[in-house]
Amino acid sequence: MSGVRFIRTLSENGQVSNIPGSEFIEECDLVIKATGQSKQKSFLNLIGGINTNGNGTIQVSEQYQTTNKKYFASGDAVSGGQEVVNAVADGKKAAKGIMHFLCP
Length: 104
Prior knowledge:
Number of strands: 4
Structural class: alpha+beta
Low-confidence stretches: none
């Protein structure tokens, strides 16, 4: 089985601790690790059809759909880097765009 291994956590009094026995694997066939601060333009070139702005951010519609209609983007890839809360909000908007795309 291929996937990502997770463990549930508990936050109490500002401390995060693992919940014993709560590990699980989320099956997947592709994981894109998002770390670091540099743009991965070479990765976007592998996909093709995704236009970027002059600052290297990905062009998206109001529904966060890229110019390659099979792909959606949000967060720092679109904004160029803001607070985490902005990336989360963008992710929610992109999820709604994906739902609209899949279930018109």
